[in-house]
Structure formats: C-alpha cells, structure tokens
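Sequence of SpoVA protein (Clostridium homopropionicum DSM 5847).
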Amino acid sequence: MGDYISAFIIGGIICVIAQILMDKTKMTPARILVVFVTAGVILGALNIYDVLIKYGKAGASVPLPGFGYALAKAVIKEVDQNGFLGAFTGGIKGTAAGISAAIIFGYIASIMFSPKTKK
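Predicted 3D structure, token representation.
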C-alpha cells in the first residue's frame, strides 16, 4: 500500500508542477514537455532522479522526466561500454520499448475511437 501512496505523491507533484507552469507562465505544452524531459536527463545524469525512482517508483518513472532519466541512464551505460558511439545508440536502445509501446497503443486507440483535431 505504501508504494501506491508514494507513487501517487511523487507523480502528483510532477503533474502539479506541470499544471502550475501551464497556468502561470506563457509556456506552451510543447515547451513544458521539453523542459520536463531535459530536467529528467539532467537529474538522471547527476544521480538525483534515482532518489525519486527509489521512493516514487512508477510515479517517477512514467511521467516525462522519467523518460529523460531513462535516456540519460541508457546513454551513460552505452558510453561506458562502447565509447563515443554509445552517445548515439544508448538512448535508442534504452527507450525503444517505451517508444514502441506508445506508438502501438496510440495507433490502437486511434482505431477504437474517432480522433478529431481541435477547432
């Protein structure tokens, strides 16, 4: 039960930060997305995001900073193993499953529902 609560709290804090940025700044959602992914990369590279993952589990790994964290960790691992080339291959290898799942499930959702553009 404690894991669910900590995931809810950590994930909720991340979402609250995003909502505050949308409400109080003129940043577009796309810029907020970039800020969150970049923050995840930076915090992951500095091993700070590891603490959030330890306590927040899915609440920290599923949101956008978690994607940045996964990118950073995969690139660091690949660079350690393969040198400079790992900077280009690490992110692809480390996040391929998540990106593939997003594409596949997004496609399935678009088939099941009638997506429309905003007017």
